[in-house]
Input
Amino acid sequence: MSYPETQLRADALKLPSVLMQGITHMAPVCSVVLSMQLVSQHAKVTAPLAFAIAFGIVLTLGVSLTQLARHISSAGGYYAYVGRTVHPRAGFLTAWLYFLYDPVCAGINLAYLGDLIEKTVSEKFHVYCPWWAVLVGSTVIITLLTYRGIKISTESLTILGLLEIGILLALSAAALWRPGPGGVNLISYVPSQAPGAGGLCLGVVFAITAFTGFESVAPLAEEAQDSRRTVPRAILGSILLIGALYLFASWTIIIGWGTREIDTLASSGRNPVLALADRLLPFGELLMALALLNSVLAVSIASTNAATRVFFAMGRAGALPRWLATVHPRFQTPVNAVWFQALITLVLGLGLGFWLGPYREFEFMSVVVTLAMLIVYAAGNAGVMLYFLRERRAEFRLLLHGLCPIVSSLAIVAVVYFSIVSLLEGPLRYAPLVVVVWLALGIALLVVSWARGREQRLLTAGAAGKIDRTAGGGMM
Output
């Protein structure tokens, strides 16, 4: 069925809905449950310190992103920002790297969720519930919600997000009330307790993965009320709220497990967060499994919202097939982009899940996604500096448009370097190669298109953004 190309539903979302898009995309319970063991395997007892460093890096990135969001309103997000401020080719390559992020997010998270549910249901009820069935069923639910409209999907995010945060805080309170061996202490935030720079930096990589999602607010700009104010506030608000939650939750989980037994947390055969919940809360493991299901559904909805809007913007601009810009006349959702995203979720989630296994899929793709997004973030930082130096020189501020982009970009370079030199064993060492090969394919596509005289259709990122040229640019 085909629909006429119209526009997304303007002014459909208020600040709370846009804020929950960022919060649920960061998926607090999902991130803590799925990332805590990975972070502690490398950063050991200083896993909370790794989250703190990641928080600082992401906060500076968020500040930089808001400077562009105040002036460029687009469903294309970083694609439009970088294409408009750096160069259209850089915009296309940014979108190309972005395809390793939001479009794959639902598949890898739902596969790992299915694996945890399969094991939990089997152990508790002796019932076989295959992980792939969880993935397929969840994909159907998410697709229907995003198909029916942005408002209904963001309202679902609000309910799911508040529920999962409440359960996570309950676990944190119980961990402080009944701490493990070592008692309540703050050694997790002492740098000298780290196992080394490489281990800590690799922990930061997995911790940054837990923060990725704040930028998913930007693609909702064309559907947000007063987007020049709403989007920047939602970006910073989601980072600050989830950052505080991660610092508290990661610390209390270490305390609840026991700082003297951190090695057993990293090597636990059961997911340590679920095991801790089972010890500290009535029906704790099942309660956390419910929260995890809730969280993964929320992040999958949020990532689908963001990915489909970027597909829509690129299709509208001609950088992708124009049928992706088709909008449902009643629900005003990018219907073809929704179906396309559902296909990606199923193919990637099932394909890598059967090949690597759901856990290895999540671990491997977490590194791939993080490294790709760090490059995207660095490109956005360059865009901030160039935009204000070249086009809004009178508004240039050293802290906002100079120091924040530079400091966060240097931090990105350091984290990438130390993490790559630490990835010496197992399939993780191939994760950087995947990013390099994928970027090389994007460059090759540009070169071939240029040689055939067809490059122009790929270089339309600037057309995807609505630029505000007023002198003030709005208040954040």
Observations:
- DSSP finds 17 helices and two strands in the chain.
- The radius of gyration is 21 Å.
- The domain at 15-379+408-463 is CATH 1.20.1740.10 (Amino acid/polyamine transporter I).
- The longest strand covers residues 72-73.
